[in-house]
Specification:
Strand 3 and strand 4 form a beta hairpin. This protein is elongated. With 340 residues, it is of the alpha+beta class. The chain has two domains: 89 residues; 231 residues, BirA Bifunctional Protein, domain 2 (2-Layer Sandwich), CATH 3.30.930.10. Helix 1 packs parallel to helix 4, helix 2 runs antiparallel to helix 4 and helix 5 packs across helix 10. The chain has a seven-stranded mixed sheet with strand order 1-5-6-10-9-8-7, with helices on both faces. It has a three-stranded antiparallel sheet with strand order 2-4-3. The relative contact order is 0.10.
Length: 340
């Protein structure tokens, strides 16, 4: 047995010298000192020795075990130090090297424009409201004086979920929803996404962003509408901009108007952006139709109001000198980086 113990010690020392990783060291430890290890197996056989041999061999076996354990501990310390040096070298940072540029995100031009427009109207005392993009046909059409068979309700223009529910075609339903729940006077703006059954091209998109505005109270006139929108246009596009109002027709306003500003690119002389007219259409507006006031529970003989709607993308285009709506939705970093 003594020779076997010496052989285990020699083999263990030889294996220790060859081991060059902590994994190999752990395997050796299990092989020799584990529950089924070679040294453990010999120690279990000591019960078969005579009473005279057992104390001597037990002492010798413990000395062998202690030598192996000490050698394992020393080797483990060496290998851990080597591993530490390897990791430090691999993860070493040269602080003299140029750093990697961290790309900073920025506000999307649509969001930036919405915030600018909101800031103007909040400064004029307007509240910001929000509503559902999946809307009842009642609020999207009926409550806005667009009865059944009105052209705006055609399937070729509107995304219907069923005959009673649509993807809203405008943020104007917030007019009816707000008046239904609040007594006059009130002033609100309602920004949000809207949907039209259009093909995507330079000037049209099935998804775009609109902002509805509404002011209702006693004695509100078209002059108030004109003053408000002129203030807005000059605040967003510059004090030098000229503003004009053209007669138009919307089912939920009477009288109605379209609002243009002098072209930002050519200053009104005529260019490709303004189709050589010198003017760019910005929004539609008008006095709230008496039928809309009545359906919301207001008395048209007691209160009046005006409403307006602008497409945020069409506001961005002249503001930033662009010529295509689809650029807002293509997520092209070359385009977005212009707005940092």
């Amino acid at each position: 047995m003594k020779n076997m113990l010496k052989e285990i010690l020699n083999e263990s020392i030889e294996a220790l010298n060859k081991a060059d990783s902590l994994e190999e060291l752990e395997n050796l430890k299990v092989k020799v000192l584990g529950r089924k290890g070679s040294l453990t197996s010999i120690l279990r056989g000591m019960k078969d020795l005579s009473k005279e041999e057992r104390p001597m061999m037990g002492k010798y076996a413990n000395e062998i075990r202690e030598k192996i354990e000490n050698s394992l501990a020393e080797k483990e310390k060496i290998l851990q130090e080597k591993r530490k040096e390897f990791l430090l070298e691999r993860e070493r940072i040269d602080v003299t090297m140029p750093g990697k540029k961290a790309e900073r995100g920025n506000v999307h031009p649509l969001t930036k424009t919405i915030n600018e427009v909101k800031s103007v109207f909040i400064g004029l005392g307007y509240d910001v409201v929000d509503g559902p993009e999946v809307e009842l046909t009642y609020y999207n059409f009926d409550a806005l004086n667009a009865p059944k068979f009105h052209p705006s309700r055609d399937y070729q223009d509107t995304f219907y979920i069923n005959p009673e529910i649509v993807l809203r075609t405008q943020t104007s339903p917030m007019q009816a929803r707000t008046m239904e729940k609040n007594a006059p006077p009130l002033k609100i703006i309602a920004p949000g996404r809207v949907y039209r059954n259009d093909n995507l091209d330079a000037t049209h998109s099935p998804l775009f962003t609109q902002m509805e505005g509404l002011a209702v109270g006693k004695g509100i006139s078209f002059g108030d509408l004109k003053g408000t929108l002129t203030t807005f246009c000059k605040a967003i596009f510059g004090e030098e901009r000229e503003v004009r109002f053209r007669p138009h027709n919307f089912p939920f306003t009477e009288p109605s108007a379209e609002v243009d500003i002098s072209c930002i690119v050519c200053g009104g002389k005529g260019c490709r952006v303004c189709s050589d007219t010198g003017w760019i259409e910005i929004l539609g507006a008008g006095m709230v139709h008496p039928n809309v006031l009545a359906m919301a529970g207001y008395d048209p003989n007691e209160v009046s109001g005006f409403a307006f709607g602008l497409e945020i993308e069409r506001t961005c285009i002249p503001k930033y000198g662009m010529n295509a709506i689809r650029a807002f939705y293509e997520n092209d970093n070359r385009f977005l980086e212009q707005f940092k």
